[in-house]
Design goal:
mainly beta; Immunoglobulin-like; about 0% helix; globular; hydrolase
Length: about 150
């Protein structure tokens, strides 16, 4: 069984590393402190987490920012210029080893499990799956399509 090498979706505008600060690992989710937003996401096996910022419609990814810190299995970062209502999602990198329970696929936009609100609706598409439907390797295959256009 050969599997394509996992590749990240093309990145939108890059961000200067100095823009994001280390932030705090708790509380989980996106938390506004009156000056900016702290983002914190748990993952014991990820190798990198990217915070994806979208425009007000939620349809266009504007920036992708790597969360700079990892504390006690929590990736975190603080954006001093972010405000409540910022539309965001995550792309999580790590091993793609379905046989070992790891299905990291940065081509798939993930909803924050602690999100306080969703914008838009889920639109059905095979691109939502981490594997390629109909592939001879079944759910062990790797899907490279971007799921962002279909995720609220």
């Amino acid at each position: 069984m050969s599997q394509p090498k996992p590749t990240a979706t093309p990145e939108p505008a890059s961000v200067e590393p100095s823009r994001i600060r280390e932030g705090l690992p708790f509380p989980l989710g996106a938390t506004w402190d009156g000056l900016g937003v702290n983002f914190a996401l748990f993952s014991a096996n990820a190798t990198k987490v990217e915070l994806c910022l979208f425009d007000a419609s939620g349809e266009h990814e504007l920036e992708r920012i790597e969360l700079p810190e990892y504390t006690d299995e929590i990736f975190h970062g603080y954006l001093p210029d972010a405000h409540p209502g910022q539309i965001y999602g995550y792309r999580v990198h790590g091993p793609y080893e379905p046989q070992n329970g790891h299905r990291f696929n940065p081509n798939k936009l993930l909803i924050d499990p602690y999100a306080k609100q969703l914008v838009g609706e889920l639109r059905w598409s095979e691109a939502l799956f981490g594997y390629t439907i109909g592939h001879p390797d079944g759910d062990l295959s790797f899907d490279e399509r971007d799921s962002a256009p279909f995720v609220p």
